[in-house]
Write a structure and sequence with these properties.
Length: about 325
């Protein structure tokens, strides 16, 4: 067990996986851990998330959501994260959601990185997008993206999803893609371990509007899955789904959010990381990081073979076939 009393997940290391690895950690830290402590210090939940959960894992990329206070006091929390994790951080503009996204990169693994500009008007919460170069394959661009899809609008998430697919299309021609975050909707039902949500049992009426579409019969509600379908159709792979079905790791598709919200249907797999078809072949493991007591979302960790990532960036093999769910 960890100091927080959380289940221990093996840290990514050469020893655990018998080869060098590259790891991506994704975490929606609820409201950035909260407001500052009364004495002006960083809040305890922020400290727990960074010192007890993220720092020991030594990730090469961290995708963060709800960086609510990180732009205040001259980016104080962003800079504190950089120092604590030994990474370079980027913060998105503060959109209508008032919860910026953030992205952190380890310079030794990705020695070249720069923010990518885009039109933020299409996003309720603008993503953080970074163009990086992997140390082992510096000639190829790798696009990294941290997103937080609109919580309140199926149509808004559809528009945002299409913006992601535009970037996927661009990188198919010139490089590679890794992105993820709080999707605020559900994966396609095929191959999931959690039964489909029965919307007649959900009592949060606003949540029903935010997370469903009306079925053709005009009365029943269908769970929103547009983002998952759009990204899979565009050639990406949900890393956790790949690990569960190709690597026999059923825990990879464990729920990440909703554990304390029975009125919203209970635990669901809301937080997901997507990779392109070539990088999918480099996935060694996907771990769900229990953040009970720290955040209302569990973290998602993707462990990649370093050799496999290099091969993917050099395009030494064909992409992994699309998942059957989009057929």
């Amino acid at each position: 067990m960890t100091e927080l009393g959380l289940p221990t997940v093996p840290k990514p290391s050469h020893g655990n996986y018998r080869e060098p690895v590259v790891t991506i950690d994704c975490l929606n830290l609820e409201k950035d851990g909260g407001e500052d402590a009364p004495d002006g210090g960083l809040p305890q939940r922020w400290l727990d998330a960074h010192q007890q959960i993220l720092k020991p894992r030594k990730a090469d990329v961290v995708l963060r959501q709800e960086a609510t206070y990180s732009h205040l006091q001259d980016n104080r929390r962003l800079k504190a994260t950089e120092e604590l994790l030994g990474m370079k951080g980027f913060l998105s503009p503060n959109g209508a959601g008032r919860n910026p996204t953030a992205l952190f990169v380890r310079p030794d693994t990705f020695p070249v990185f720069q923010r990518m500009t885009y039109n933020a008007m299409f996003w309720r919460t603008p993503p953080t997008i970074v163009s990086a170069r992997f140390a082992d394959v510096p000639e190829t661009e790798l696009l990294l993206m941290s997103w937080h899809a609109a919580f309140n609008s199926p149509r808004g998430r559809e528009r945002e999803s299409d913006e992601i697919t535009a970037l996927v299309d661009r990188m198919e021609r010139r490089g590679a893609f890794i992105g993820g975050g709080d999707c605020n909707e559900y994966p396609l039902e095929a191959g999931e371990s959690v039964p489909p949500l029965e919307w007649s049992t959900v009592t949060d009426r606003a949540h029903i509007h935010h997370r469903t579409n009306l079925a053709p019969d005009g009365s029943t509600r269908l769970s929103c899955t547009y983002l998952d379908r759009a990204l899979l159709t565009s050639g990406l792979h949900d890393a956790a789904r790949y690990a569960a079905h190709e690597l026999d790791q059923p825990d990879a598709i464990s729920p990440t959010a909703g554990h304390a919200r029975p009125d919203q249907g209970g635990p669901r797999r809301i937080d997901r990381v997507y990779v392109d078809g070539r990088i999918a072949r480099a996935v060694l493991a996907v771990n769900v990081l229990d953040t009970t007591g720290v955040s209302d979302h569990h973290g998602v960790e993707v462990v990649l073979s370093r050799r496999g990532l290099a091969e993917a960036l050099r395009r030494e093999h064909q992409p992994s076939p699309p998942v059957q769910a989009v057929a």
